[in-house]
Design brief:
The protein has twelve helices and 13 strands. It is an alpha/beta fold. The strands form four sheets. Strands 1-7-6-4-5 form a five-stranded mixed beta sheet. The protein has a four-stranded mixed beta sheet with strand order 8-13-12-11, sandwiched between helices. The chain has a two-stranded antiparallel ribbon with strand order 2-3. Helix 3 crosses helix 4 and helix 8 (222-244) crosses helix 9 (261-270). The structure holds oxa(dethia)-CoA.
């Protein structure tokens, strides 16, 4: 028994922030952002919307493709860096929006690697025969945690908001489904990409001083993230392919977490893959949407006809934690 992706959907908020819009907020330039990251624009959520609101249309689209009604869902898995509230998790709010009281909802928080980790969790439940119809949504609102002043420019220009969702179901078809997943974390680098507050290490955990010190905004040691990303991505891709028993030459498309075009190019280079043909990128439109970036990219790759039934795909991620992982999937 394998888990396969029976439906996929995505949603981004309406508001587009171009590099020119970012130039109005801070000392930056379209040229710098494009050259360092490949990003041209990103979407920012409207005040009042939470990650569950972004996830809802993506979830509905994925359910429709899988021919399922919300009532058919056995389990919700919800990946986000920050849910609608500190607690409860965003999965519970998506359960409310889908009007399926009683359906279990599980949040996972492993940042950029959330989609690969969630796929591994869903796969485990399905292969064990515990659940049949799993809705897995990855949704991020990061704009609220960006320091949109010049002081925060190295990080603020990279991130955007968005959501992706998939429905996973069991199949006995040998040529379909999640074949291998490999996951890793290294907490020694936990503080290289973080949002420090509110923190349970502080009591009270939110004070005017904490806000003044900007501890509620994302901080990043960009160079260290870059350095580790370009070695960990290729290593975990090789590891997952080896576990799947599939040669690199059989891979139709690598859909990496859209962290930065330069990282994807370096990964393609190290794996000796042709960037344009084998490694998918849509970061120019959305920026880095953390755990939502893989399902958003996979959705667009499918719609563009770059993924066909039976194709071998590699999904791979690296980010805050540090966490990283890869999945080999037959579409
Ligand atoms: O999911 C994982 C998410 N994180 C990532 O993917 C980030 C990985 N890291 C990176 O992609 C790169 O490290 C960055 C894009 C974040 C930065 O690129 P860099 O080549 O490492 O630049 P830098 O930090 O060394 O900064 C170079 C210069 C500095 O100016 P000086 O000191 O040379 O005068 C910065 O102040 O660029 C300046 N700078 C900017 N200039 C214009 C930093 N941010 C900006 C900006 N606009 N937004």
């Amino acid at each position: 028994m394998r888990a396969y992706i029976a439906g996929i959907g995505m949603h981004v908020p309406e508001k587009v922030m171009t590099n020119a819009d970012m130039e109005k907020l801070m000392d930056t330039s379209d040229e710098w952002i494009t050259e360092r990251s490949g990003i041209k624009e990103r979407h920012f959520a409207a005040p009042g919307d939470g990650p569950s609101d972004l996830a809802l249309p993506a979830a509905r689209e994925a359910l429709e493709m899988a021919n399922l009604a919300p009532e058919d869902i056995d389990l919700i898995i919800f990946s986000t860096i920050a849910g609608d509230y500190m607690l409860p998790g965003g999965g519970c709010i998506l359960n409310e929006l889908l009007n399926i009281p009683g359906t279990p909802a599980l949040d996972i928080r492993v940042q950029c690697s959330g989609f690969v980790y969630g796929l591994a969790v869903a796969r485990g439940f399905i292969e064990a025969g515990i659940y049949k119809n799993i809705l897995f949504a990855a949704s991020e609102i990061q704009s609220v945690a960006l320091d949109l002043r010049t002081e925060g420019r190295d990080t603020a220009v990279l991130f955007g908001d968005g959501a992706g969702a998939v429905v996973l179901q069991p199949t006995e078809d040998e040529n379909r489904g999640v074949i291998a997943t490999k996951l890793h974390a290294d907490g020694r680098y936990a503080r290289d990409l973080m949002v420090e507050a509110p923190s349970t290490r502080d009591n009270p955990w939110l004070t005017p001083e904490i806000l003044e010190q900007n501890k509620h905004k994302i901080t990043m040691n960009g160079r260290n993230v870059f350095k580790h990303a370009i070695t960990k991505f290729p290593a975990v891709i090789r590891e997952a392919l080896e576990a799947a028993g599939i040669p690199k030459s059989d891979v139709k498309l690598v859909v990496p977490h859209q962290a930065n075009l330069r990282i994807s190019e370096a990964v393609a280079n190290r794996l000796d893959l042709t960037m344009h043909e084998v490694v998918y990128s849509n970061i120019h439109k959305y920026g880095n949407t953390t755990s939502a970036s893989i399902p958003i990219a996979l959705y667009e790759a499918v719609k563009e006809g770059r993924v066909n039934r039976g194709d071998t795909l590699v999904l791979a991620a690296f980010g805050s934690g540090f966490t990283w992982g890869a999945a080999v999937v037959k579409w």
